[in-house]
Design brief:
The radius of gyration is 22 Å and the shape is globular. The chain is built from nine helices and no strands. Helix 2 packs antiparallel against helix 3 (about 55-75), helix 2 (about 30-50) runs antiparallel to helix 5 and helix 3 (about 55-75) packs antiparallel against helix 4. The chain has about 250 residues and is mainly α. Helix content is about 75%, strand content about 0%.
């Protein structure tokens, strides 16, 4: 092979590799957890509608979360280098249009109609949630430099809220109640760590304190569940906590 031919082949390989990389960019674990947060907002809104199908705020929250998740899902690459990652990604991309169609249907049903069964939709969303978690775990093995613990804490807060509302919408077992309390204690421990670590941070200190204040107000509510039920309060303060934790993530 001549030097000219070898050089041509090397340049061709470089161009092909560069083009392939532009088509299949890395899937960031941060991007995946953002979609998980939006998806959990959907689940929370659906549980709110299960409790009160006339709740206009829940309908608006459902539509807003659907739009946010739709944008996020469409921003994900359609291809991945790793076959296992590709399989997980494909499942998410195929599931979303079907789920989104049902969400649009749910959010536009007239309020004077009979509340529809939401179990199939909840099941589909929870299945999609598992795929996103597997995808995040998979991409975390190869992508470094993305500290996600504040977003993971926000996701935990959403999970607590979602389980709380889900148990109000259906019969709650003693096991699920104990799991809810355990989640709340785990969240509390993490918040104490964040407060200590960021106490001297010029910017992140304030939102952490605000999140702690909101958490202190609702923490005891999980101890007295189900004897005392305050779903609106939990949703409002939970949303505030998630927002503050997301802002901390942006600062660090």
């Amino acid at each position: 092979m001549t030097l000219r031919a070898a050089t041509y082949m090397a340049l061709s390989l470089l161009l092909v590799t560069g083009a392939r990389a532009s088509v299949t960019p890395d899937i960031s674990p941060e991007a995946i957890i953002q979609q998980e947060i939006s998806l959990n907002e959907l689940l929370i809104s659906i549980h709110r509608l299960q409790l009160d199908f006339l709740d206009k705020d829940a309908r608006q929250a459902l539509q807003s979360s659907q739009q946010t998740l739709n944008t996020g899902i469409k921003s994900l690459p359609t291809q991945a280098q790793d076959p296992e990652t590709q399989e997980l990604l494909t499942k998410v991309l195929l599931m979303w249009p079907v789920v989104s169609k049902h969400l649009s249907w749910l959010s536009t049903i007239p309020t004077d109609s009979e509340p529809p069964a939401t179990t199939p939709l909840l099941y589909a969303l929870e299945k999609m949630e598992r795929q996103l978690l597997l995808l995040r775990n998979k991409t975390s093995d190869v992508t470094k430099g993305h500290p996600l613990r504040y977003l993971e804490q926000a996701l935990l807060m959403q999970g607590i809220t979602r389980d709380y509302l889900g148990m109000l919408a259906a019969d709650s077992s003693s096991t699920r109640r104990e799991e809810l309390k355990a989640q709340a204690e785990r969240f509390d421990r993490h918040m104490a760590i964040f407060r200590q670590e960021l106490n001297g941070h010029p910017n992140a200190r304030q939102p952490v304190r605000q999140a702690l204040a909101a958490w202190s107000f609702i923490h005891s509510r999980f101890e007295v569940f189900p004897e005392q039920q305050t779903p609106e309060l939990i949703v409002r303060y939970s949303h505030n906590i998630v927002s503050k934790l997301a802002s901390v993530h942006q600062m660090l």
